[in-house]
């Protein structure tokens, strides 16, 4: 589980206004903002509007992936959230991004999550597998 390190405590304190600004800077291609945003997506925080901002950033990164290292950091966090069952509303945006950026790792994570004692984790794992199976069939046609 990813914990807030002393170096990343600022992430938990981001306000809705800070997050709006970060999202706009990411969309403008600001490399510092992209680095901060990928940390934010991977970081556990529960502030006002944090899940919404995380979802917006994931939708952006799904179509405009950052550097591989940043992608891996976000995907690691999404996989851990799925397996642990530590997610809330708008998690599907995180899953969708991770599926697009690394379908093989997400398939392996979903297979592992199918053994969870938590029914909601198994449901999300089944959803991931269904999405992956649907997209692989689409590529065959």
Blueprint (SSEs and pairs):
Elements: H1 9-12, H2 16-27, H3 31-42, H4 50-63, H5 68-84, H6 91-101, H7 103-113, H8 119-140
Query: What's the story with the biggest beta sheet?
Result: none
- Into which percent range does the helicity of residues fall? over 70%
Quote the distance from N terminus to C terminus.
39 Å
Tell me the number of structural domains: 1
Q: Give the helix/strand class.
A: mainly alpha
Number of DSSP helical runs: 8
As residue ranges, the low-confidence spans are 1-5
Q: Write down the secondary-structure element order.
A: HHHHHHHH
Strand tally is 0
What's the pLDDT, averaged over the residues? Answer: 92
Which value, in Å, is the CA radius of gyration? Answer: 15 Å
**CA-based shape:** globular
Query: β content, as a range?
Result: under 5%
Task: Explain this structure.
The chain has 141 residues and is mostly helical. It has one domain. Helices cover 73% and strands 0% of the residues. It is built from eight helices and no strands. It has helices spanning 9-12, 16-27, 31-42, 50-63, 68-84, 91-101, 103-113, 119-140. It is globular, with a radius of gyration of 15 Å. It comes from Synechococcus elongatus PCC 11802. This is HEAT repeat domain-containing protein.
